[in-house]
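Researcher: Let's do a round of design. I'm pasting the structure tokens now; please hold your answer until I've finished.
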């Protein structure tokens, strides 16, 4: 059986952002990626200046979920991302080469881009649509209040409003209102769409239209 491709994910602060990733994440980086241990084959490494980091994934399906977890951990500092594909073996498939390619892709992004997908199987138009969707998703997260963000992150872990209420020491009704105000359903729908799109390289559209 032939070895699978590998995927490099680079993440960095947005242009003109003065904060480093270390100050943005604080102690949240490891905790944010705790649920992705099986997906991440090489852990995050930050550059010496703290402006960008890289990690390696075995498959692309959870790349956007990982990016979302990183953005929530860095809130309210805006991040941007680049996802690249690399061969499973040879010089180009080594960790250093995969990280380097991802970092270069991130650092050569246009200023207005939020998420660049360097995936040969995807068309130019759908890649542009994906970046637009990623930008809207990031705006939803950045516009959250701290309380709503706490509710969102807690609900991602527990999956039940009652458990979130216990953790945050508020009523379940308050949790419901916080998730509604955070537009949690829209967040999850966008994340699910990205997950399906990344898992199906044969797709020619991000959200395929239904024929009537």
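Researcher: That's everything. Go ahead.
Model: Designed sequence:
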């Amino acid at each position: 059986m032939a070895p699978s491709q590998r995927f490099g994910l680079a993440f960095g602060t947005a242009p003109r952002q003065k904060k480093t990733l270390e100050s943005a994440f604080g102690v949240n980086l490891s905790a944010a990626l705790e649920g992705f241990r099986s997906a991440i084959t090489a852990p995050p490494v930050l550059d010496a200046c703290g402006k960008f980091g890289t990690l390696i994934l075995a498959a692309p399906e959870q790349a956007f979920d990982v990016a979302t977890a990183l953005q929530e951990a860095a809130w309210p500092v805006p991040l941007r991302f680049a996802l690249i594909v690399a061969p499973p073996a040879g010089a180009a498939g080594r960790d250093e080469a995969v990280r380097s390619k991802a970092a270069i892709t991130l650092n050569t992004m246009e200023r207005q881009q939020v998420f660049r997908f360097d995936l040969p199987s995807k068309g130019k138009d759908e890649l542009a649509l994906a970046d637009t969707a990623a930008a809207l998703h990031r705006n939803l997260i950045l516009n959250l209040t701290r309380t709503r963000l706490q509710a969102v992150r807690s609900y991602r872990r527990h999956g039940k409003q009652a458990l979130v209420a216990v953790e945050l020491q508020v009523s379940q009704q308050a949790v419901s209102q916080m998730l509604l105000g955070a537009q949690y359903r829209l967040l999850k729908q966008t994340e699910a769409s990205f997950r399906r799109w990344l898992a199906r390289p044969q797709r020619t559209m991000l959200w395929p239209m239904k024929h009537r």
